Amino acid sequence: MDARPRPSGTYARLLAALEEARSVDGAVKGIEPFASRLMARDRIRAFVRGDTKGIPLHVILTDGPFGAWWSAVFLDLFHGEDSRSSARRLVGLGVAAAVPTALSGWASWSEKDIALKRVGIVHAAANAAATAVYAASWTARSRGRHELGVGLARAGAVLLLVSGFLGGHLSSGRHASRSVPSVE
After folding, report:
1. What Rg do the C-alpha atoms of the chain give, in angstroms?
2. Counting Cβ atoms within 10 Å, is residue 29 exposed (0-12), middle (13-18) or buried (19+)?
3. What is the mean pLDDT of residues 113-122?
4. Rounded mean pLDDT of 11-34?
5. Model confidence over 57-95: pLDDT tens digits?
6. How far apart are CA 61 and CA 2, in angstroms?
7. What is the DSSP letter of 106?
8. φ and ψ at 32, to 5 degrees?
9. How would residue 3 be classed by pLDDT, with cut points 50, 70 and 90?
10. pLDDT exceeds cutoff 80 at 8
11. Could you count the other beta carbons within 10 Å of the beta carbon of residue 81?
């Protein structure tokens, strides 16, 4: 039994509701075969879990898109052409870096229990939405619609915050719900 305290408060109640949300079980069952294949080989599983480096791969890779996108949001506070160009490039870098980050996330997700897999589905959906919004931001910026790109990046940042909180919960391995429900 895990001796760590359970999270408490409104946030914990929301997490517990996600952990117990049987409505996402269809998505869990649908993605499990793909995610499990990502971890089929022992060497890959050890690398993704961080057995050799002490830190799971997904935790490391999240710095790529997260850092690029937040740096772009920062550069958007300035109005020079250099800042605009750099922000556009950073948004594109984040979109590209999201692909291996997502794959490593699904691989890690495959080894979670059902409660955390439910949270992981919502985490992945928020990440997919953020990536789509940032891809739209890059497209807008590339077509000379910088202000639209800035607005989209700010919306993407909100999705990143939601996803980041859920990802932090996943990486902690703690449960907010009182029981770990099973899939039927």
Report:
1. 18
2. exposed
3. 95
4. 93
5. 999 999 999 999 999 999 999 989 999 999 999 999 999
6. 27
7. H
8. -55, -45
9. low
10. no
11. 8
Q: Rounded CA gap, 30 and 148, in Å?
A: 35
Residues 6+ apart with CB under 8 A from 123: 105, 163, 166, 167, 170
Q: Residues with Cβ < 8 Å from 180, sequence gap 6 or more?
A: 19, 113, 114, 115
Take residue 34 and report the two structure tokens written for it: 């793909």
Report which of 169, 82, 81, 83 is spatially closest to residue 123, judged by C-alpha positions: 169
User: Which among 45, 48, 44, 46 is positioned nearest to 56, based on CA atoms?
Assistant: 48
| Element spanning 20, H or E | none
H helices of 7-145, in order, are: 10-19, 25-38, 42-49, 57-61, 63-75, 81-109, 114-142
CA distance 78 to 106: 36
- Which is nearest to 87 in space by CA: 106, 103, 100, 68? 68
Predicted model pTM: 0.87
